Amino acid sequence: MTAVEQETTLRKGHIGVSVPRKEDSRLVQGQGVFFDDIKRHNMGYVHFVRSPYAHAKIVSIDVTAALELPGVYGTLTGDEVALQTDPFFQIAAPPGAHVKDYALAVGKVRYVGEAVVAVAAETRERARDAAELVEIDYEPLPVVVDARRALDPDAPVLHEDAGGNMSYTGVWEWGDVDQAFADADHVVRIGELHFDRFNSTPLETDGALVEYNRGTGQWTIYTNNQFPGFAAIMMGPALRCGIDKLRLVTQDIGGGFGNKITSHPQLVALCLLARKLKRPVQWTEWRTDFHQSMSHGNERWFHDVEVAVKADGTLLGFRAKAIDDAGAWLRYEPLGGVIWSQVAPGVYRWRNIKLEFTQVLTNKGPVSPNRGYSRMQHLWLTERIVDIVASELELDPVEIRKRNYVRAEDMPYETPNGCVYDSGDYAKALDIVLDLIGYDTIEERRKEAAARGKLLGFGIGSTLDSGTNNFGQSQLLNPDLQFSGNNEVATVKLDIFGEIVVTLGTTPQGQGHETTAAQVVASIIGCDPDLVTVRVGHDSYWNSHAGFSGTYASQFAVTGLGAVKGAAEELARQMRQLASMVFQCPEEAIELADGFARIKDGPPEAALPFMALGAIPNANNAGFPVDPPQMNARYVYRPPFEVPDKERKFGKLTLTYAMQIHGCVLEIDPETGYYELVDYAAVDDCGTRINPKIVEGQVMGATAHGIGAAIWETFAYDEEGNLLTPNFYDYHVPHALDMPPLKTGAVESPSPFTPLGAKGMGEGGGGAIHCVGAAIQDALRAAGGAVVTDSHNPYHRVWELIRHPERSRATVEVTTR
Amino acid sequence: MGQQPTTERTISVSVNGETYERDVPTARLLVHFLRDDLDLTGTHIGCDTGNCGACTVHVDGAAVKSCMLLAVQADGRKVATVEGLAGDGELTPLQQAFSHAHALQCGYCTPGMLMSAKALLDRNPSPTEEEIRIAIQGNICRCTGYWNIVEAIQDAAGGGT
Fold first, then answer.
1. What pTM does this model have?
2. A512 interaction partners in chain B (CB closer than 8 Å)
3. Which residues in chain B have Cβ-Cβ distances shorter than 8 Å to A701?
4. Between the CA of residue A529 and those of A28, A31, A299, A500, A768, what are the distances in Å?
5. Percent of chain A with pLDDT over 70
6. Which residue of B has its CA nearest to A740?
């Protein structure tokens, strides 16, 4: 493994240093506390009975036999849920707004794996046995699996209340698209592109332990939900309670990647069971249940893609139609219908873009955020466009990128839809990738591979990781929504014995928040990061959270650490103020260093240890003429956003734009379609890196996810709506032997818009998916010139591309003036 | 009708050097015995099919997936789990190497990964990169892409486990 540091790491105090992670000691000893590790006396284990049909009426449910089994505590059915709760709030405007979504299926099932009945029993095994005794009569209905057929007049309708299968449709257009095509020397048309369905499959599945306090009507929910702010907003109205009745607690979480945002239906079912059965209930999702029903990534079709290109390779613009497949429910959707527009032009300077975006419902697992959520699909489109244009017009894929990339001197760069790319140098990052790959020798290596009977290809993936959402973008989909901006909360206090304690609203799942928060606090307070305690996870009881609290959408380095910085600066001010009261000197004369508040250049005895400062307001406060400062600072970070212009669909949708350029070399066996990645480089720019090692770790993880999605990982369905890959046998995630040699590089272009110059990162924008597809297409130039039209290219698909290049070639056409 | 099948049995298992005698349902998996009966929650579960390796422990010195054994099959045998690695509170060189190389993020796969790595290093103190990758191919990690895990095991091999 090679790592290249192109610029001096920005260091200030402990910022920019790869200090060891505070989390590691407990985790390498098996002492982490994950939700499934928490037990309560007499708790019931919950098992969900799930639908074997993709679409069916529920004729009857009989739980008698299950209840008669010794050790069974009780059941919950859709009828009870419909009486005791209200449907979940829908983000969509009509028609999607009319979808009625409950914690369990009511009247109908709409995908294989949908939860119909919940059973609680004294052991996991007994709950599962009892679930098999629940008798459900179904009346199967016709299914729609292919999103392209969902709007056909004769397509079966999932949600009669919505009057059809469309959840959202809108036209997004900026610049002068018709003029761009009038000015073009070439128009490249691509008939159809398909971004496949998969997700990040965190190793820990969803779950919770839920307790109900009958005296106060409050639930305590120990869970791994990664966006408690959103969960509370969804659950409170459904359960007909204020959100203060929902105490959400997270500790260690075994991976999330966006997939653990939408567990609110299951959590509501557990809340109802805990109340009904008068005992704590625990649910741990089975792996198959996760695959069938939790947070599939958005599958997307692009049709009638047309690209306007000048003779010199300048890209003027493009237009396309997108059909987004939301699956059976809108649990976070149709937000995917706007999120893509955070990166509408990708990394390119074209100013004229039109996308007709339609989202449909199908009899498949519901989609929800997945690493690179909705932007990855769109960035894949832009990268496919660039490589197909390059290959059709015989332009160099490196040159066409450099000609059209947003340039370093254009930063901050306003996109055609009013987003502002804060900083970056994409061409420089590409040069580093080319250097790491040894691009100057690629043609020799191609010949050498050909001599061995292999087809060698090189591909580039240029991608963005937009972070720190402006939730006001939801109003571009539904003008009646009352969401906008963003926030995160941190509390930093100095306790009686001088302990510095940090409390956050975030829900880290491996991103090392305890470590990086301690680095920031230590840099401001003047102490070692080891002396800073950062509490694990989120707890509503800490009062250190707000409506958008959680860990999602590449934002912690901005929102979370922005809040930490604000709170730490306030605490430092209070510490200096208190010391100045003690020493009766001006506040400016006090400095914080090495665990002391002392008079600058003063005598050695003019120094108060943090312990003394912490004790004064808490336990030693007599004799002060005015109240001493509290040594307890709460800060809410709020990014500077306006509500976007709803008419023009224009405005700042996110605050930061981290960039990743990936490049890979692969070799294909033309006889079988089997291929191997033989060289790989990933260069990341996320502004100031608080902890470079943690940043690099996430670049690696995103790379592995992209490689998995490009080659092996797919949620494939048969025509009847059965998921064919419901476990880790059939859904192959990368193993240690699957990974190519990796070279990483970093550029640091600090963001001018954020408290620390850092940008959110971690999702990674699917760079590996883009570059693997590009490399396959490059390799196949020597074998018929097939066009890669799918994001997922398993070996059999590559074999088909080699055998029938004319099929994909027929979907592409060039008109030249 | 014939004899009723046994649904419960008393087993005696040595775990991390301590012997536990427990009545267990015969259908109970070893991993649930460790996690639920002994409260050794460091051993994790990531799948239902024996693919992910999060539940890897040692049984009589060999790395095994504890979801693929019944608790009764461990009767009379010696089991070692992640909790037993740093018995005296001092992290082993392998654990230190995982932290140093940033070989863990969420930490969910880490206990199983450590147990597979330890089994490798116990039998082969100087493995090649290929041998390391083969030894951990039964352990899925969704955070790291494995590069840093391989590096950590190489580092630990250099310094002893």
1. 0.97
2. 105
3. 105, 142-145
4. 20, 21, 43, 10, 35
5. 99
6. B147
